[in-house]
Amino acid sequence: MGEATAFTIRAARPDEYAAVAALTDRAFAAGPYGHLPVSAERRALVDAVAERAAAGAVLIALEHDPDPDLVRDLDLAGAAGRGRADAAAGRLLERLPGRILGTVSLLHAGSAQSRLAVGEEAELRLLGVAPEARGRGIGEALALAAHEEALTWGAPAVVLDTGTLNLPAQRLYERLGYERFTPAGADREPAADADADAAASDTRIDHVDYRLPLRDRDDLVIRLVRDDELDAVAALSLRAYEIAYDLSDGYRASIAEVAPRARDHQVWVAADRTTGELLGSVATPRRGGTISPLAQPGELDFRLLAVDPPARGRGVGEALTRLVIELARLRGLDRVVMNSGEQMTGAHRLYGRLGFSRLGEREHDIVDGDRRIRLFAFTIDVPRATGTIAA
């Protein structure tokens, strides 16, 4: 872990909001509409970073200045083992100072600065990259991170608009799978574009509206678990594993530790869109981390894929596994890997259907109580981060 990456993406902190606004100004000024005067409306929009964070998320791309003490701490955290050590390393990384290279905001429909989003859609706004940092893939990385954020909300789509003269932005969005669309109420007066190279005045700017679907099923919503659902996910997961496997006390306790997993990693749920009933769950690491000793650099691992027994046959396990592959794609990783006990034959059939293959060189035995269990390993290559999000 000692070699620093070119930049990292995380949520902006309150002490960084002024710098986010300043960078947005610089990005606008260097764009195709930078010659236009800045209106009071535009000024208020750019400066309202705290409001955007409260109404959704404000992400930044950060270039770290080397800090020997923190780099050493990161190395020590990595050497301490995987899983929780990676979560600790991620928290250390967030403390690193650095220069903000880019930013993007993601908003819920109905918030003060949202223009296009309706219902549960998310709206991408104010994507901007420092002029001197362009050409490094920062805009694409920020857009993909915003897509992941929208997935955590369970949003069915991301929408945005950008100026007709902003051809680089249009090429980026279309490369990422966005399609042009005509929103309801298309006769609305245009305001500032979603992209940070957009209009900076009250002058009418023609714009292009884009939409990227995030779901391919209308009956399921997949999102991060909520605090009031932790016990329900623990019970669901135990039911899923107990019906097919003889669980030791230790493994049973590990399955039920949903709250610590949600704190250190990500716990996802699949819910019935009509009733809200929880149908399944899976755990993944946060960006930059791992959740098991199996994963190597460039890989995303996951654990504890579970489908409530009454919900089997509805494709819930497949939908959750496809979500994991999509997360790896959005993070620019090469492979998804996981361990699975030799007795979990139903899961093995699912992985085979989806194109996973065995990773024999990483398989080993574990002792669970008085039993020795072979841990199979599976892997699948991840497509590059272009094209549509929905499977």
Short description:
This protein is α+β, with helices and mostly antiparallel strands and 391 residues long. Helices cover 33% and strands 26% of the residues.
Walk me through this protein's architecture.
41% of the residues are buried. The model is unreliable at 1-5, 77-82, 189-194, 198-203 and 386-391 (pLDDT under 50). The protein has 2 domains: 8-213, 3-Layer(aba) Sandwich (Aminopeptidase), CATH 3.40.630.30; 220-381, Gcn5-related N-acetyltransferase (GNAT) (Aminopeptidase, 3-Layer(aba) Sandwich), CATH 3.40.630. Helix 4 (68-79) runs antiparallel to helix 5 (84-95) and helix 11 packs across helix 12 (345-354). By secondary structure, the protein is α+β, with helices and mostly antiparallel strands. The strands form 3 sheets. The chain has a 7-stranded mixed sheet. Strands 11, 13, 14, 15 and 16 form a 5-stranded mixed sheet that branches. The chain has helices spanning 17-29, 40-47, 49-54, 68-79, 84-95, 138-153, 167-175, 230-242, 249-256, 258-264, 316-330, 345-354, and strands spanning 8-11, 56-64, 98-108, 122-129, 157-163, 179-180, 207-213, 220-224, 266-272, 278-284, 299-301, 303-307, 335-341, 357-358, 364-368, 371-381. Helix content is 33%, strand content 26%. Helix 6 (138-153) links the parallel strand 4 and strand 5 (157-163).
